[in-house]
Amino acid sequence: MASKQLVGRVWFAGTALVVAVGIILQLVVTGGSAGNGVGFYQENPERVLNVLVFFTIQSNLLLGATTLLLAIRPERTSLLFRTLRLNGVLGIAVTGIVYHLVLADLDDLSGGAAVANLLLHTATPILGVLGWLIFGPRGQTDERAAAWSVVFPVVWLVFTLIRGEFTEFYPYPFVDVNEHGMPTVLLNCLLIAVLLLGLAVGAALLDRRIRVDRATRP
Fold it and tell me: Which pLDDT belongs to residue 173?
């Protein structure tokens, strides 16, 4: 048990490191390409700061922060931490799913941008989800955490739509009101919310099943 906990802490630390490298690289690449005619914001610091509003970055930040805390001390049981932990896992899972199903074909990246994209859209979703499945911690994904975990993505969607009304910038095509109109975007948001709620409930049920299986294993 002690050796598995040690491996888990190393896994969590490695996940946090990959998140940090990916985000820093993305910020450097974005800032270094200022004035190239690509992107909504052309000048720094607006160009760099705008990176932080993407759901990909928000999810990676949540995943990185919670896995770093678990690497330091795995015994964390507060409702706030359990909710943020689930937010990080679900958010990064949705990031990987939506990117590879909907957005991947829209990208044509190279160099540092391609590396950052690989880290933030592929590597961290795999590390985050596998880390939760293998190392947990178990018994922390209950109905209360699942219910509260929906708050973060809903707040992000509301913030994105309100901000877009003033700036006309939308980070993803499926929330672009200028392109699709508000009714279609609201439908897309509803589908995302349903997906997240389904994943949260599924995570709670799976966590319980894994815990029971391990408790009854000879």
Answer: 84
Q: What would you report as the CA-atom Rg of the chain, rounded to the nearest whole angstrom?
A: 18
Residue 36, both tokens = 């190239």
Question: Reduced to 3 states, what is the DSSP secondary structure of residue 89?
Answer: helix
Task: Tell me the C-alpha distance between 59 and 214, whole Å.
Answer: 29
Q: If you average pLDDT over residues 89-97, what whole number do you get?
A: 91
**Tally of helices (H runs) and strands (E runs) in the chain:** 10, 0
Output the CA torsion 107→24→9→73 (10° steps). -130
Distance (Å, rounded) from C-alpha 79 to C-alpha 141?
10
Q: What angle do CA 128, 132, 134 make, to 5 degrees?
A: 115
Euclidean distance between CA atoms 25 and 18, whole angstroms: 10
Q: Cα–Cα distance between 129 and 131 in angstroms, integer? A: 5
pTM above 0.85, yes or no: yes
Q: Check residue 38 and give left, alpha or beta (phi > 0: left; psi -120 to 50: alpha).
A: beta
Q: Could you tell me the end-to-end alpha-carbon distance of the chain, in angstroms, rounded to an integer?
A: 14
1-15, 30-44, 174-188: least confident range:
30-44
Give per-residue pLDDT as tens, 142-165.
888 888 888 888 899 999 999 999
- How many C-beta atoms lie closer than 10 Å to residue 66's C-beta? 25
The conformation of residue 142, written as its DSSP 8-state character, comes to -
User: Closest by alpha carbon to 207, among 86, 30, 26?
Assistant: 86
